[in-house]
């Protein structure tokens, strides 16, 4: 039974099936959508005897990777904070951050959220959305450069919609952020850990600003500088 399940999940078209089924779990809890997909990833990992390269983790973390991830995360944060998010907020309103508002000034909540974020958002989301969904769709479409581009757009839209709890602005902003990250994965198809670090550092900055209650103050300050 396990072998049959692994063989089926290993089929090129299985990724489409999983992407269509996963949202159905959202009727119970939005987190189930993510954990269902992540469960499939680990079933595939176990069946492949933990061949991490199957999901784009083929390179170890080096000093160059760390430096690159910090620089890219900072650039992305500045671009979104100074340009993209203010523009989107003028058009679409404010983000719904009610799900994490309780960490403001709450040290224990902040630490717990940071740990959860690095494990499930930085690592978990990247291995699921880029390492499995994006890579799987690209291979299904023929593994050409165009296939990877189509896959980047589809996966980013899927990723954006998964953040609908932040409001429509969250869907649009996350889609744009995800598209940039996906294009970066297209150029570094064997180095998913670079994206994990970028994702983690980017979210760490945002979570820290919310904890310090400086998430709006920093935006106004940056706009004044420019």
From TrEMBL:
Protein EC: 3.4.-.-
Record-given protein name: CPBP family intramembrane glutamic endopeptidase
InterPro entries to which the protein is assigned, alphabetical: Rce1/LyrA-like_dom
Transmembrane segments: 12-45, 66-87, 107-128, 140-161, 167-185, 192-212
Pfam families: Rce1-like
Organism: Urechidicola vernalis
Keywords: Hydrolase, Membrane, Transmembrane, Transmembrane helix
Molecular function as annotated in GO: hydrolase activity
């Amino acid at each position: 039974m396990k072998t049959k399940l692994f063989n089926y999940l290993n089929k090129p078209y299985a990724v489409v099936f999983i992407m269509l089924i996963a949202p159905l779990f959202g009727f119970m809890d939005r987190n189930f959508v993510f954990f269902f997909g992540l469960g499939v990833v680990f079933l595939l990992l176990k069946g492949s005897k933990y061949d991490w390269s199957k999901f784009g983790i083929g390179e170890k973390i080096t000093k160059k990777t760390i430096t690159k991830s910090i620089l890219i995360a900072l650039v992305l944060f500045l671009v979104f904070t100074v340009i993209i998010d203010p523009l989107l907020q003028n058009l679409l309103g404010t983000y719904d951050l009610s799900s994490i508002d309780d960490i403001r000034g709450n040290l224990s909540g902040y630490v717990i959220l940071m740990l959860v974020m690095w494990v499930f958002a930085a690592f978990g989301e990247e291995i699921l959305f880029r390492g499995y969904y994006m890579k799987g769709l690209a291979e299904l479409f023929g593994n050409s450069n165009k296939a990877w581009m189509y896959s980047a757009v589809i996966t980013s839209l899927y990723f954006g919609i998964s953040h609908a709890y932040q409001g429509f602005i969250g869907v649009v902003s996350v889609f744009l952020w995800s598209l940039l990250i996906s294009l970066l994965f297209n150029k570094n198809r064997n180095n998913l850990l670079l994206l994990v670090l970028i994702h983690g550092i980017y979210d760490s900055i945002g979570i820290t600003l919310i904890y310090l209650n400086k998430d709006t103050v920093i935006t106004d300050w940056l706009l004044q500088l420019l």
